[in-house]
Amino acid sequence: MGLDVDDTVSNHNAGGAAGRRLRVGVAGLGVIGGGAALQLAAPDSPYAFSAALVRDRTKPRPGLSPDVGVHDDPDAFLNAPLDMVIDALPDGAVGYALIKAALARGIGVVSANKQALAGRLAELHGTAKQHCAVLAYAASVGGGAPMVETVRRARAAGGVRSVTAILNGTVNFILTELAAGGAFQDAVKSAQAAGFAEPDPAADLSGEDARAKIAILSYEAFGEEIDLEAIAIEALDESKAADFAKAGGVWKQLARIEASGDRLAARVGFERVDADPFLRDVAGEGNALRVTTDDGETHDCTGKGAGRDPTVDSIFADLKAVRNAG
Fold this sequence. Notes:
Blueprint: E1 22-27, H1 31-40, E2 47-53, E3 69-71, H2 74-78, E4 84-87, H3 92-104, E5 108-111, H4 114-117, H5 121-130, E6 135-136, H6 147-157, E7 160-166, H7 169-179, H8 184-193, H9 202-206, H10 208-222, E8 232-233, H11 238-247, E9 251-260, E10 263-272, H12 277-280, E11 286-293, E12 298-304, H13 308-325
Parallel strand pairs: 1-2, 1-4, 2-3, 4-5, 5-6, 8-10
Antiparallel strand pairs: 7-9, 7-11, 9-10, 11-12
Helix pairs in contact: 1-13, 3-5, 6-10, 7-8
């Protein structure tokens, strides 16, 4: 999966001088950013790992080359020799400010930070266009499932009528555990142990994570984002898990967008999907997407929606597309 270069603004700095490796900085060295840093630092990497932005620059970071500038100040980080920034920050507000500042300097951005992007894509694309910079964010939705690309292809093939998706791999993993007879708290702990859920899983369980992702997909499908506050969400908790067990069947957290004339409506909630094999069979940390166009055609994709490896692979697919386009 990766960015469709035709749908982005070519960055005149991205390719750099002929033969020079793309200079990349990583903002945030947590699970995702740390995985990206490992790939950038690999001996056969086609990229130059130039700088890192961290919360605490005094923290020992074994294995990090002394050639990589480590900064705790965003301005100092962006003053490093950079062609592209990987945004893997855990904070939406900080990530948004960094993306905006990088694009304004003509530095391209590949972001996995859905909270930084949701509700702001039109603005950020405008900044990217103004400063001839690339903005790519396939990794922000779907992990290893090419959701952004699938929606773009569907929109190019005909007007989009609706989008239905399983967008949160952590919640889907928990629901799979519950369907197998597991207890709610045990399922949450298993998701944390597997690296799918954060120590505080509130963003996943509340539905806020899926809401941000469906807002991003609304921009790709319809050229506009639905206001986040207008997207109703339903939380997963112990009481809801008990309801599912009592009702039986297969339950999924579904994010939906539907177009009716000039009106868009979106929601995130739980639905029983026994009669829909495509959604019913998505197990574990899987994600799935179905886009229906005005002519009734459907465009589908599935993939792993949580965990370090799928997200990092998506980041590097976008980076590769930028490098090839340069």
